[in-house]
Amino acid sequence: MSQKESNEFGQNNSDYIQKFQNIVLQINFSTSTNPSTLETLTEELFSECFQSLFPNYNKTCPKCCVSKLQASPIPPTDEDLWIFGYGSLVWKADFPYIDRKQGYIEGYQRRFFQHSIDHRGTPEKPGRVVTLIPSSDPEAKVYGVAYRIAKEQKNEVLAHLDYREKNGYERNTLNFTEFDSGNSIDVVMYIATNQNDSFAGGSEDNLEPIAEQIYETTGPSGQNREYLYFLADAMRELFPGVVDEHLFKLEELVKQYERRDQILVDVIKSKICNIFNSSNADEAVDKFKCLLDDCSQKSYLTELYNNIKCDR
Ligand code: BEZ
């Protein structure tokens, strides 16, 4: 490839060679370089020239924290409204409430079958969020959290949620069973049916395409994978021992994509370190060009990962 051409990723290798030459000037190849300097240079070169190969790589994986019930000055009445959350409301309610109960609704399955273009994705690159799909399985349950909204606040809270969930969700009223007591109450919840424009659906048996979409997507509310991880963490915390196969399988698949990128990032960094250990600047430049050429081909990273997997 000529130095002026863009590679398969649309990058111009000649810019990278220039950057490398600037970095190499900081090394005296005749003496052994201090390991901490090597580490800094490796990080610098990686972020300048190779980071863009891993657009979804992000080391930080925040921990979910289920929000705590705040003491409320408003006493409960029979006219209060209960709202059931089975998505982000499970770990965080962004409206005032006076009580909260853990439990489930029956006759539905929670699925990442709805596109998110305004929270965990964008219109150009939609993310995936949950909706409820009717189930014929008599055992089907969806676990979540019901929030009690004081009658004085219910119009304001419903208006807030109607706006928040405007991308395809509709209000429904269903029966909710409290986990500890087995008591039932009517709850309002938002469901996006397969009739809405953002319904994406998906296969029950092959969750890979949904996992890949979640791994690659970010929206105004944050990374799509964070939504998945928070929901899975919150379910384990609130309902230990309850297995949501669809949710936990997706979590496992997305974590596999994260691990793949982490492994590849580590391998590229060790190759860079090896370049800095060359015996002279010319050898280092040659090795760098080779690595750049390899990484210019999209298939290289896939093959590299497959070989690493085979060796393990
Ligand atoms: C939730 O539980 O967070 C939720 C799910 C779908 C629509 C609205 C809220």
Low-confidence stretches: none
**How much helix, percentage-wise, in residues?**
25-40%
Strand content: 15-25%
What structural class is derived from the secondary structure elements? alpha+beta
Q: What gyration radius follows from the Cα positions, in whole Å?
A: 25 Å
Shape: elongated
Strand order of the largest sheet: 1-5-2-6-7
pLDDT average, as an integer? 92
Distance between the amino and carboxyl termini: 33 Å
| Extended strand count | 9
SSE string, helices as H and strands as E = HHEEEEEHEEHEEHHHH
- Total helix count? 8
Largest sheet: 5 strands, antiparallel
Tell me which ligands are bound: benzoic acid
Would you kindly provide a written description of the structure presented here, covering whatever features stand out?
Strand 8 and strand 9 form a beta hairpin. It contains 8 helices and 9 strands. The longest helix has 32 residues. The model has no long low-confidence stretch (mean pLDDT 92). With 312 residues, it is α+β, with helices and mostly antiparallel strands. It binds benzoic acid. The site of benzoic acid (BEZ) has 9 residues, from loops.
